[in-house]
Design a protein that fits this description.
The chain is an alpha/beta fold and 323 residues long. It is built from twelve helices and eleven strands. Helix 3 runs antiparallel to helix 5 and helix 4 crosses helix 5. It is found in: Cell inner membrane. Keywords: Acyltransferase, Cell inner membrane, Cell membrane, Membrane, Transferase, Transmembrane, Transmembrane helix.
């Protein structure tokens, strides 16, 4: 008689099928599948998983922890060692939560995502900005949940956002689809994309930018950010000068115990549209600082924001090298 497989054999067989299935996937398909699975979680479960990932990054002294501690030492030199450690640990946990929330923002129905916004602060600034028909340039640093911020504004306005394409083409298509499911237009950060942003702003529309990235190439300026001169994008001031748009800072603060988010809108510092690059970038960085200081634990301190300093200065992440 033929051998009848037992339950363990069946489990082993199906496990092998699953492994072979994942092995046959492209990198993009594998990543999209993982995001789809994570996107089925409720908010509280996703945040708990994110906190767990952040705790692991802290406990095992990862490079993310090292960079976070360096950044906080630069930004908040007056804190005690215990305060630095507590803030660094909290920052890693919040970054983990952001990572686990992104699949929700991409996979959940839009109405469910927007239902997470429990309150809005500064909404009158939006109304005032749109009264005269000017374009609106939204500046959303890596603070809180920036994906939810973008989703909210694309639900209210005809909107375009600047993005950097990932290296995997299939994943870029997926990212454009999920971010643009309310009609938001994603444009690349090249000459054609910037021309598109300017045109939309001149028409009185809304565009969004993540303003706290370290820009590449020439044509940028070195301006103080938390007391250290770092390379800063001049793109914001150029867009404002060419379009006459109104700039506003915005972020989505994560509330405790999985209760959702608070959307915050703030005025920018005077001088952000100045024709002098140093004045404009100093105002931009100060505007970012202002909102980061409101909830510093929810800022992405794991990013090497201080790596591009004035040439000849010490690289804080590699003290044996100069910039």
């Amino acid at each position: 008689m033929p051998h009848k497989p037992d339950g363990g054999s069946f489990r082993s067989f199906f496990f092998q099928l699953i492994v072979l299935r994942f092995m046959a996937m492209s990198k993009a398909s594998f990543l999209i599948t993982i995001l789809g699975l994570a996107g089925k979680l409720p908010l509280r479960a996703a945040q708990l998983a994110g906190r767990f990932l952040g705790t692991i990054a802290w406990t095992f002294r990862t490079n993310s922890r090292r960079v976070t501690e360096i950044n906080l030492g630069i930004a908040f030199p007056d804190l005690t060692n215990d305060q630095h450690q507590n803030m660094a640990r909290s920052s890693l946990r919040h970054t983990g939560q952001t990572m686990m929330e992104i699949p929700l923002m991409w996979e959940w129905p839009v109405e469910r995502c927007l239902g997470l916004i429990r309150e809005i602060e500064g909404e009158e600034l939006l109304e005032n900005a749109k009264k005269d028909g000017r374009g609106l340039l939204l500046l959303a640093p890596h603070l809180g949940n920036w994906e939810l911020t973008g989703l909210y504004f694309s639900s209210r306005y005809r909107m375009a956002a600047l993005y950097s394409p990932p290296h995997i083409k299939e994943f870029e298509d997926y990212m454009i689809r999920v971010r643009g499911r309310l009609g938001s237009e994603l444009v690349r950060g090249d000459r054609r994309g910037l021309a598109r942003l300017i045109a939309l702003l001149r028409e009185g529309e809304v565009t969004g930018i993540l303003p706290d990235q370290s820009p590449r190439g020439k044509g940028n300026a070195y301006a103080p950010f938390f007391g250290m001169d770092v390379r800063t994008m001049t793109l914001v001031s150029k867009l404002l000068q060419k379009s006459g748009a109104k700039p506003l800072m915005t972020y989505s603060e994560r509330l405790k115990d999985g209760r959702g988010f608070r959307l915050v809108i703030r005025e920018c510092e005077e001088g952000i549209a100045d024709t002098d690059p140093l004045i404009a970038t100093t105002a931009l960085n100060r505007s970012i600082e202002n909102v980061v200081r409101e909830i510093p634990e929810q800022y992405q301190w794991e990013y090497k924001r201080f790596r591009h300093r004035v040439p000849g200065e010490i690289n804080p992440y590699k003290p044996d090298r100069v910039c």
